[in-house]
Design a protein that fits this description.
six-stranded mixed sheet, two-stranded antiparallel sheet, globular, about 25% helix, Double Stranded RNA Binding Domain, single chain, about 20% strand, 4 helices, alpha/beta
């Protein structure tokens, strides 16, 4: 009897149910509300290659790298960022000087970290998740904020000019990130949403 009832259900109803399930599964995916800022004196179309900004890890930072550190999440974020930049026509390089350097930060709850004075010099970024510091300048980018000024759960992606060591583009999204409970597809959507705003338009020139 139950089987007959299911078989008699109109096909259109099944399609509607599948659509509702798909929408509910995507409800938490951040497809809007991306924000960005950039140096309006840069022609972003000229860049062809990129690599990762070398981070400095201060010691100690709550045991070395923060209690929520996982190399898996680090790999996923970097892979997602690289994928989006490649779609924009850029090439990831390791053995040559890149046109762009990429860094990222995740704002997390730091209440569990040991309160210490790290004496951050001007030009440092500070990732509360990893304890990374980035020694680049941000004077050319309007409305710059250090990572602790963002809402917890925000992913920030920075692009730096290696010739000047200046931050030239920043995109971010308050995605309610919990580094201890992230799946690969969610990271990809977050990063794709942020990087959809790069390069900024209209392009400016030096």
């Amino acid at each position: 009897m139950k089987r007959d009832k299911i078989d008699s259900t109109p096909p259109g109803l099944f399609c509607l149910l599948l659509l509702l399930l798909a929408l509910s599964g995507c409800a938490r995916l951040p497809l809007a509300d991306v924000q960005y800022t950039y140096d309006h004196g840069i022609n972003f179309r000229k860049f062809r290659t990129f690599s990762w900004y070398k981070a400095e890890v201060p010691t100690p930072v709550a045991g070395g790298a923060g209690p929520q550190f996982t190399t898996l999440i680090d790999d996923r974020v970097k892979r997602a960022v690289a994928s989006e930049l490649v779609k924009q026509g850029l090439t990831l390089v390791f053995d040559e000087e890149p046109d762009l350097l990429v860094a990222y930060d995740i704002a997390v709850d730091t209440a569990q970290l040991v309160a210490q004075d790290y004496n951050l010099a001007p030009g440092y970024g500070y990732a509360y998740w990893y304890g990374y510091r980035y020694r680049y300048s941000y004077t050319g980018v309007p409305n710059y904020r250090s990572i602790e000024k963002y809402d917890i759960g925000t992913l920030v992606v920075d692009l730096i000019d290696p010739d000047t060591n200046q931050l030239i583009w920043r995109g971010w999204l308050d995605a309610d990130i919990n580094p201890t409970a992230l799946d690969d597809s969610y990271i990809s959507v977050i990063v794709a949403s942020i990087m959809s705003q790069f390069p900024p338009t209209p392009d400016a020139t030096r």
